[in-house]
Amino acid sequence: MLATRLPLFPLTTELAATPAGPTLTIGGCDLAALAQQFGTPLYLYDQATMDAAATSYREALARHYPSETGVTFAGKALMLTAAAQWVQRQGFLLDCTGAGELHIAATADLASHQILVHGVNKSDEDLAAAVAQAGVIVVDNPTELARLAQIATQGRTLPELWLRVRPGVAVETHAYRQTGQHDSKFGFSTEEAISAVAMAQAQGLPVTGFHFHQGSQFFDPTPIGPGIDTVLELVQTLYQQHGWLPTTISPGGGWGVAYHEDELPQPAVDEYIAFIAKRMIEGCHQRGLPLPRLQVEPGRSLVARAGVALYRVGAIKETPSRRWLLIDGGMADNPRPALYGARYSALPVTDPDRAILGPAWLAGPYCESGDVLIEDLPLPEIAAGELLAVPASGAYHINMGSNYNGARKPAVVWLRDGVAHLVQRRETVSDLTRRDLPLPFGA
Ligand code: LLP
User: Is the Cβ atom of 211 under 6 angstroms away from ligand 1?
Assistant: First the structure.
C-alpha cells in the first residue's frame, strides 16, 4: 500500500523511525509532530515539490519551443500571500481573478509585469484594479473590450490586452471543468475576435495576444491541437485582412495530476508541452506565420502534488456494509469529491505500511450525507485518534473551502529543508462573526 500510494505524495515524503513507530515525514518534517503543533485539519505544502514542478515546465518549454516562452500560474488553484511570493520567485506571471486576488498579489508585493488578470464578468472594481495593477488583462468579451476602450479615453494607460477565444473544442474532463466548447460562457467567438481586433486597431488599443483554455484536469492533450489550429487560422485571417499579428499566444492550462493510485503514473509535463510546442511550430510554419511567444498557464500541475491534508480520526462506525472513519475535515476544506465526484487516496501517518484490513469510507463532520471525502479505500485497521494524510490536496482546496456548519478554515504550513513555517493561520471562532452586525433593535 505504501509503495503504490507514495507517488501521489510530495517528492520529499519519507518514512522515519520514531518512538511511536515508522512515521511519514515531508520536507524533513514529522507529520505527527506538525499535527500536534498546528492542529488538524492541516494543509501542508512541500516547496521542493513545487520547485520541481516549476522546473519541469521551464525545461520542457526550453526543450521544445525555439522562441520566447513563459509560464503563468493560474492563481485560482492556490491563492495566498506565500504562494504569490513563490510565483514571483519563479519568475512566473500570477493570474489573478478580479480585485480580490489582485489584493493578495499586492500584499505579496508583485509588480505589474508579474500580474495577469482573468475574469468572465469583471466588475468595474475588477477592471479598475486590473488596469492599475496588471501587466496583462485577458479580455473575455466584446462588452469588456468596449469598457476598456472607454477607460482608455479617460486618459488611463491600458496594460497589454489578450483576447480569450472559444476554440469550439473542450478537453476530456468533468463537464464542470470544460471551457473550450462553442457553448461555453468563457471568451469571444472567433468572429467576435476578428471584429474586436479590427476595433482595437482603429482605436489604438493594445491588443497583443490570444488566449484560450479548453478545460482542466485532462490527461490527453489531443484536443489542444484543434484549439491551436483554430487560433492560428484566426491569426492568419487577421494578418491578411488587417496586417495584425499577436506577440503572444496562450493555450491556457489544465494538465492533469493523479489523485488516486489508479491514475498513476503521474502525467508528464514534458509530454503535454511537447505536444503544444509541436503543433504551434507546425501550424505557424504551414501558414507562414512567425512563432509568437508561447505562454502556458498551469495551476494544479504546479501545486496539487505538493499539498497534503492531514486529518484526525475522531470515531469509527460500522454500518451494515461500511467501515466509516469519521475525520475532522471534509467538504468544508475539500468540496471536490462532492462537486466533481473526485476520488482521493490516503495513508495513515504512523506505520503506514500495515496490512490492509479492508475498505473504508472517510467522512467529515458536516451535516450532509455528501460529506464523504473518500469512498471505498483499502486501509489497515485504524484506531480513533490516528492521523490520516490525504495526498494531491494542493490545488483547489483551501480556496474553494467554506465555513459550512461553522467550519474554520485550516492552517496552512509551508515545509522546506526540515523547517515548517505557518503561512496562513487557522480561522478562529471570532473570524466567523467578524463581518456580522447586530440587528438595530432589541430582542
Ligand atoms: N487558465 C484558465 C483560464 C483557467 O480557467 C484555469 C482553471 C487554468 C488556467 C488552470 O487550470 P489547471 O491547470 O489548474 O487545471 N475547481 C476545479 C478546477 C477549475 C478550473 C478553473 N480554471 C477542480 O477542482 O478541479
Answer: no
